Amino acid sequence: MSVEPSADATEYGAVALPEIRVEWPQALAPTLRDSVVDAHSLDREDLVAALPGLWRAVDAALDLAGPGSLVVESVRHDAYEGWQVAALPRYDLDGRVRPRERGDGTQHAAPQLRDRRALIGALVDAVAERPCLDLRDALQMLDVFAGTFPPGLDAVCRRLLGHELRHGVAAGLAPLQEALDRRAPGGVSTLCFRESAVGSRKAKGDPATDNEDTAGALTGPSGVLRCAVFDGVTGDGDGSGGTAARAALEQAVRRWRLEEAAVAGDAPPSDHHPAGPGAGSVDAPRSVPRGDPSSTGPGSPVSRPGELIAELDAAVGRATATGSAAAVLATVRPDGTASVVSVGDTEAWLIRPLRAPAGEIPYTAWKLTPAHTGFAERLRVTADAEGEESQLVSFLGGGTARWAHRTFRVAPGDLLLLASDGATEPERDRWFGAVLAELTAQLDASGRPTAPALAAALVQRAEALGGWDNATALVCAVGEAKD
Description:
Layout: E1 2-5, E2 18-21, H1 32-38, H2 47-65, E3 75-78, E4 82-85, H3 113-127, H4 135-144, H5 153-162, H6 169-181, E5 188-197, E6 213-219, E7 225-233, H7 240-264, H8 305-319, E8 324-332, E9 337-343, E10 347-353, E11 363-367, H9 374-379, E12 404-409, E13 415-419, H10 432-446, H11 450-464, E14 471-480
Antiparallel strand pairs: 1-2, 3-4, 5-14, 6-7, 7-8, 8-9, 9-12, 10-11, 10-13, 13-14
């Protein structure tokens, strides 16, 4: 490295601007985005599981170069060599590396805000459809595209930003990494709880049409839990959104019962048509988009996500010409495998206990679904997206151009939340995942049954925040398999 005065600088001028050239003694691996997007040396779905290796490399880099030495391009990955961190040390005016200030002992250096922002930017940049601009852009994309990003990445980035990390990044992220990798050692059992409210500012004085949310769950003899939340959308307040939501739930329940019957061998396969039209009929399976993953498991004839959404869309179309609905549906199997399919702005979250040190909130949460809104569509192409947060671009009732599907695993102690957007109302400058973790910890400490208390608390919170919308929360408690 050399330091030379700028050609524009005059001798003893008021401003001296050096030109710094950095030479790396070893070859640099591709940046993380190049590794994931171009070289495909690291699959985006495997990113979160591979992060412990990065945290160790970051700690080593900060120990050598000192805090404040990371930029987005510092995070690199090679298919054969693994993680590499290209740190940029601080320099003295004579061009030499300024030694970092070491305290007593072997405690790792805590990353500065610049380091944290660089790590978050690199992680989001690697999985986003377009390059990430800055921290604000990264956090917006994490929220809007959560269901298409690797599951848990939002929780990782939020912990990077908010945790003290005084003992190093690897130590600070270890409880979360353990939670993200946790699997059920045996089977699981499930119980569902639901709460719903109109919202005082949404109420118009007609109990039959005021609440356009609906939700339901079914656990059959196979032990498979199927549950859903539908959020009706009405343009002129005529209650057609509620009609749409109820029609979608009725169709979902018919499908669930057919699937259970097929497993038991008591009915034809899931694409069978009962004779004749009417409320009891099941739509013909639609053509499945190319690349549409099947949510089926061994011996479980479950509809593919595209087929399921097409059936629900057709059911809404038969029930109303003006109403529509957002939807989120989840399936949890006795072996701990789970899936969620969503359309619109309804949300699914997974809340999991943390084996965290005393004094920390013992829960974490991450989002499982993206948003299908005008804002999300704009954010796909530009970081300057604004407005249109509540304008749906995909919904049941003629607008199912885009839907999302995510598979994951649950473990005993988990809480799976399905909610309408009224129950996930954001607070100013506060991530909803942090709200969920703190609220769950408070309810757990109170001694009340956590799952039903959380459903009720989310509905009460929606009213406390203004009661602007119907709020529905369905919470599935995951326990150990019952003998």
